[in-house]
Amino acid sequence: MPHRSFLLVFSILPVVAIAADIDHVSVEKEGERYFLEGEVVVGASTDAVYQLITDYDALEKIDRGIVESRLLERIGDNVAMVYTRLKGCVVFFCRKIDRVERVEEISVNEVVAVVVPNEDGDVRYERSHWRLSKDKEGTRITYYTEVEPDFWIPAVIGPTLIKHSLRRRVARTLKNLEAAALTYE
Fold first, then answer.
1. pTM exceeds 0.85
2. Which of 6, 8, 46, 73 has the most CB atoms lying inside 10 A of its own CB?
3. 145-180 burial, b for 16+ CB within 10 Å, e for fewer?
């Protein structure tokens, strides 16, 4: 999401028993940046998935780590400023993150979100990209995020544990999309 990206705040979500078929989820770390990718086919229409990922007042439907989300303003026909508050934990390390994203709705098949830099922010850089395409089973969702946190991460957690948690979270978020998108049809 778009959201809907690296959060370094993780909640343990039940795996939803739905038809979503996750093709792949990967998380890599290079320097201080994390790169997340995911692809899934969900049994819902492209229109319903698009409505869901652009319903800025209800993003918690797809990502349980989002505590609050809301549209701040429209700065153009296809550009929105969106606020999200994220919360969660990895082991004992818990974090709240408030952020504002500039979301560009490129088309009904593509959405790009970039976190607006903030001196007091927790994210140095973040860019997420959602691409939707029709599939014989419903909608193929391709998701990519590049993020660099702007806060200290305890060495005991380490990149390996963070990568594992991120991979699990992205997979669960992609699966949640199907269940939530079906309510938009």
1. no
2. 6
3. bbbebbeebeeeeeeeebbebbbbbbbbbbbbbbbb
